[in-house]
Amino acid sequence: MNQRKLTRKEKAEAQRKAPAGASVSKKVKAPGNKISLPVLIIALVGILFYVNSLQNEFAYDDYSAIKKNWVVKQGTSSFPTILTTSYRYGYWEGDDELYRPLPLMVFATVWQFFPDNPFPFHLLNVLLYALTGIVLFKLLRKLLPQINPLLPFAASVLFIAHPLHTEVVANIKSMDELLSFLFVLLTIDRLLLYVNTSSLKNLIVAWIFFLLAFMSKEATITMLAAIPLALAMFTKAPRGKIIQVTLVLSTAALLFIVLRAQALGSFSAGKNFQFIENVLVKAPDAATRLATVFLILFHYIKLMVVPYPLSSDYSYKQIDLTHWASPLPWLSVIFYLAIAFVAVRYYKSNKIVSFAILFFLVTLSIYSNLVITIGSSIAERFLYVPLLGFAIAVSWLLLKIFKVPFAIETKNDDDKVFQKENRNVIIVLAVLLVPYSIITVSRNTDWKNSHSLFSKDVITSSKSALIHYNYANDLKTEQALTTDDAALKNNFLDSSIAQYKRAIELYPRYAEAYEQLGLAYYYKGADKEAFESVKRAIELDPLKATAYNSLGSIYFDRAKDYQKALELFQRAVQLYPSYIDGWRNLGCAYGTLRQPDKALEAFQRALKYDPINADVLAFIGQVYQGQSDEATANSYFQRAEEIRKNKK
Q1: Fewer CB within 10 Å of terminal CB in the chain, N or C?
Q2: Average pLDDT, the chain
Q3: Spatial contact of 583 and 598, defined as CB atoms under 8 Å apart
Q4: What is the pLDDT of residue 25?
Q5: Main-chain phi, psi angles of 205, to 5 degrees
């Protein structure tokens, strides 16, 4: 029997009643592959907001992940080592809870072709970020095919333009965040095809993408809840199929857990976090810990709503332990309970808002410190993925405020974003982009290098002991020790000493600060204060390898007690077997004590971990020169000189 054709009015009414996110029907065209205006705008926002970051240098964590990571600097030949060791293995050998081989492999590849050049790293971050915005928009269009494309567009623009993401994009190290989320989005995209077609190929590709997301960052684990949630709310896939997909994705998670356990040494391997990193470590009781957790969660809401000022660090005492006598934890509890209630209450009647809230809560959960204690109490990068929930909710609210229709007619066209009835929302987005762009571009300049970052953040996070310590390190190492102007050098050292003392004032048991304070005194020629400070560091942390190396350096250079220095250097490399500076100094001590064979052995150990260390190569040349082997000596001198020239 032939069915009567629906009138345009009847079609619109039927679509209005259709559930949000119904699976793509034959009458609704899926978004095409052409580069539409919304896609172009999203890409341009991602690129233009961060184009000034391309001139930045390596900064902060880029040193541990790339510039001073001896594994990464070996290029693609380091892949086997990267796959079988912890994330920080190439920077220090100690307890480490992280296993993120994919970003390290990317860094190693880029370093091989562009050694010590930050530009291609920054360019890759910006391009990955812009690509994420494009993929996000297209995915939201597929999840919400019968919803006004303005909503996916607004959510994507708000996500890409939000200033909170400056740490993720401007800090090269945070490529782990970019890769992980991009692969998650690609996973969901393939799963949408699978639930609609049952094509095994799409499920396999989704599994591969999901494994790559895990290999980029461990927090992908939250997607084992978020992805099934998206499929349940926005597709017509039966429950059995969603369970099947979840089980398949779980095998990727299981494989990652096994690989991580092999790399770290055990399934339970992790890091003993310090109080200075996460204030919750020293919470005296469960009540104090919980109150502090909700204080931190309150700060996350504040940062999303008002992303200014921004900081690279919010650790102790910027965020300190609190109690339930303070009103902020209670306000936080009320807020989170309220949005959780809304999510459950409107799960069926308003799936967009419900999903936005649940996605935010699920992806934030691993960073909340509610269940497990992590390496930091709070960080802007932790909001990178959860902020999508915020962007979706705000976009929905804008459409609601300006009474923009949520349903669309049969034709699914990206350009409908700019139709007349959407004008007010577009204007609001454009207005928001102004302060967002100013904050982002300005913050990118803060990330120019470690000095510019710390000099800015030491003001923003004035109570953070860690940021004072980081700033002091930069003043001492990157400023004072790189200038030939004696007066300027002393000024920088005096400033660094003041910053170390401020860090110790905030945290009196700060062993690292005492050690570096001792070195600052050492460079100033204040030997008595230098010895006292470094010895105090060892008292506070008897297993601190770098402190033994620092004390050994003072004995070697100031006291001329080479045997005592030798013993301290030996202790340093015993505690930290891949300690490049420790092996280098040990080699110098052996050389001074006229033990050339042992000196060469120590220098070769240093080269094992840093093959292009010009200083070590020159020291080896000196040993061979002392043995009258001029040919070998000259070969090492030439290699050292070539490396120094290439770095200029």
Answers
A1: N
A2: 91
A3: no
A4: 37
A5: -65, -40
